[in-house]
Automatic annotation (TrEMBL):
<dbReference type="GO" id="GO:0016491">
    <property type="term" value="F:oxidoreductase activity"/>
</dbReference>
<protein>
    <submittedName>
        <fullName>FAD-dependent oxidoreductase</fullName>
    </submittedName>
</protein>
<dbReference type="Pfam" id="PF01593">
    <property type="entry name" value="Amino_oxidase"/>
</dbReference>
<feature type="domain" description="Amine oxidase">
    <location>
        <begin position="86"/>
        <end position="315"/>
    </location>
</feature>
<dbReference type="Pfam" id="PF13450">
    <property type="entry name" value="NAD_binding_8"/>
</dbReference>
<dbReference type="InterPro" id="IPR002937">
    <property type="entry name" value="Amino_oxidase"/>
</dbReference>
<dbReference type="InterPro" id="IPR036188">
    <property type="entry name" value="FAD/NAD-bd_sf"/>
</dbReference>
Length: 319
């Protein structure tokens, strides 16, 4: 049975693992985090929750539409009605938060969390992967789905000479950071239906009322995303002070006396604002290695799905 190690357990990695399994491959997914999903993330807050990474996803391509229809059928996702907020096309969310989707997709897969890959080495016609825990994993092929700067560091530390295509991808892809504030409230917000505010200017880019979104009941919660500029300028700052600063600008919708608690998360690679045009890159290595993710092709959740799907089909020879 051919084998593949997939680095990164976000949408691209999970999709690639499923597709490879379908074609008779042994796929192992490694991720440095404690759980799966990457930026499809939901934080538990007391007895409630808040989405603090990707807020929703849309559907444009046939393969992803079929996937979402399957998720709808089993109650893993639901539509978020945002027409009142001038969103023209349907938006979808995890039924109990965005992390519901990757958790469901992870079922039946071989996934090792808490394993940060630090080196790739050729071994007997395949690849040996070393992690920071000292564990070694071997396979015939490898798929990289981690953010491009992390992939670049891994390849450099592995003494892999980069070909023109890989260098082009690394020089093309860039990410916007994001500071995400998750707020636990004593009472509902004053944000009008359907519960979102989208700002084009200023320090804040997005606010979502998770109670109106349908993923947080008691207590109500709200998610705030700082603007890319504010996030970039303050990325290494004190997170709690930055959260307090942002909340101070939102008293019209979130009165200070309604705040019970808050947490702040630092996303270094929140959104690929400049992407490599193709869905993946075939690397110039002695063993098969493909590199993709949401920095390739369409981007966002659907683009990550497409990248993972197409990399798996390339490896399996079904593309």
């Amino acid at each position: 049975m051919p084998s593949c190690i997939i680095i990164g357990a976000g949408m691209a990695g999970l999709t690639a693992a499923h597709e490879l399994q379908k074609h008779g491959w042994d796929a192992t997914v490694l991720d440095k985090g404690r759980g799966v999903g990457g930026r499809m993330a939901t934080r538990r807050l007391l007895t409630s929750r808040a989405d603090h990474g990707a807020q929703y996803f849309s559907v444009r391509t046939p393969d992803f539409r079929a996937h979402v229809q399957q998720l709808l059928a089993v109650g893993v996702v639901k539509e978020w009605n945002l027409q009142e907020a001038d969103f023209e096309h349907p938006r979808y969310i995890g039924s109990e938060g965005m992390s519901t989707v990757p958790k469901y997709m992870a079922e039946g897969l071989s996934i090792k969390t808490g394993e940060r890959v630090v080196r790739l080495e050729e071994k007997e016609g395949g690849v040996q992967v070393r992690t920071d825990t000292g564990h070694l994993f071997s396979a015939d092929a490898v798929i990289l789905t981690i953010p491009a700067p992390q992939a670049y560091t891994l390849l450099r530390d592995s003494a892999i000479e980069l070909a023109a295509t890989e260098l082009s991808a690394f020089s093309t892809i860039s990410y916007q950071p994001c500071l995400a504030v998750m707020v636990v409230l004593k009472q509902p917000t004053l944000i009008p239906a359907p519960g979102v505010l989208n700002f084009k200017e200023g320090n804040i880019a997005w606010i979502a009322d998770n109670y109106q979104k349908g993923i947080a009941n008691d207590p109500p919660t709200v998610t705030i995303h700082a603007s890319p500029t504010f996030s970039r300028e303050n990325l290494e700052g004190d997170l709690m002070e930055l959260g307090q600063h942002l909340l101070g600008q939102l008293t019209e919708w979130i009165p200070a006396e309604s705040i019970a608690d808050y947490q702040v998360h630092r996303w270094r690679y929140s959104l690929a604002d400049k992407r490599f045009p193709q869905a993946f890159v075939v690397c110039n290595t002695p063993y098969p290695m493909l590199m993709g993710g949401d920095g390739f092709g369409m981007g966002n959740v659907e683009g990550a799905f497409q990248s993972g799907l197409q990399m798996a089909r390339q490896l399996a020879g079904t593309k």
